[in-house]
Backbone:
């Protein structure tokens, strides 16, 4: 959530102030459960101010994507984490979009799947040219307009960002990583100060990944567990789990789904989830019980029951 489900106190915010959809829905829902709950906080996904959003090399503004290179966005994320933690009293928090969003996930939910943009195209279209990032590129010695022209020329042509940008790719990546580190450090410190004891991070392993899962290249201070995207019924999720384990992440969750296009079949779910556990996943994060049909929930229960022997070993 952003602050959709807790009250928005105007005095807690800076230049960016969110709109609450249903004040205190989180606490009302949590009170109905007899289970511990976590707060799932989405940091840079929201339509607040186009002036602080990601801008691609063609000049298009991604109004759903706040850019963490702006101080106002850092202040907003800091306040968001603190307000959610203090108003709900949760001791565990899951961080999504702890970095820049890019070309994908253009609205509340992903809408670009199936458009068949290559990984290189998506990465190029996700390189930010907002005023804050442009200043950082210039400070790092890059010519911003030349860089933008290289990105534009590469879309639909090259097989990798490095092919399009050459040695400048490394500089662009470091500018992004610095912004991500600053954002992560700020929100982790605020979460700890607000009493959060366990922090999980949606994480990716490809250097150029943007979106809900932030690209990580090392184990970060203050993060207790990492969550790898693992929805596909392929080996992609296994590869991501194994890559995070190779980085030294001791606790790695696998983010899976019981919703379409995954079939409501217990054997299919169990085989997929068991492969992730065998690859080193220590947790399963199953999306989304609140939307699943009775048939799908039954398949989830059966699949989980079949995994218990493996989890107990």
Residues:
């Amino acid at each position: 959530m952003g602050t959709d489900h807790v009250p928005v106190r105007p005095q807690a915010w800076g230049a960016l102030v969110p709109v609450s959809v249903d004040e205190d829905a989180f606490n009302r829902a949590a009170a109905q459960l007899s289970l511990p709950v976590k707060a799932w906080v989405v940091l840079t996904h929201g339509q607040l101010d186009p002036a602080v959003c990601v801008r691609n090399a063609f000049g298009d503004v991604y109004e759903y994507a706040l850019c963490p290179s702006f101080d106002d966005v850092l202040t907003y994320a800091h306040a968001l984490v603190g307000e959610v933690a203090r108003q709900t009293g949760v001791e565990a928090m899951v961080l999504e979009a702890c970095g820049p969003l890019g070309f994908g996930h253009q609205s509340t939910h992903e809408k670009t799947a199936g458009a068949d943009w290559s990984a290189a195209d998506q990465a190029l279209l996700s390189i930010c040219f907002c005023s804050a990032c442009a200043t950082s590129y210039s400070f790092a010695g890059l010519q911003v307009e030349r860089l933008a022209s290289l990105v534009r020329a590469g879309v639909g042509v090259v097989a990798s960002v490095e092919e399009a940008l050459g040695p400048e790719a490394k500089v662009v990546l470091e500018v992004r990583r610095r912004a991500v580190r600053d954002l992560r450090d700020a929100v982790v410190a605020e979460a700890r100060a607000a009493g959060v004891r366990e922090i999980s991070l949606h994480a990716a392993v490809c250097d150029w990944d943007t979106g809900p899962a932030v690209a990580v290249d090392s184990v970060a201070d203050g993060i207790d567990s990492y969550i790898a995207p693992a929805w596909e019924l392929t080996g992609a999720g296994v590869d991501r789990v194994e890559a995070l384990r190779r980085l030294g992440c001791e606790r790695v969750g696998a983010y899976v789904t019981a919703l379409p296009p995954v079939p409501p079949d217990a054997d299919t779910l169990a085989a997929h989830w068991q492969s992730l556990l065998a690859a080193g996943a220590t947790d399963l994060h199953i999306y989304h019980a609140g939307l699943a049909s009775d048939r799908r929930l039954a398949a989830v229960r059966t699949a989980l029951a079949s995994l218990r022997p493996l989890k107990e070993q």
Observations:
- The first strand starts at residue 39 and ends at 42.
- The chain has ten helices and nine strands.
- The chain has a mean pLDDT of 92.
- The first helix runs from residue 25 to 31.
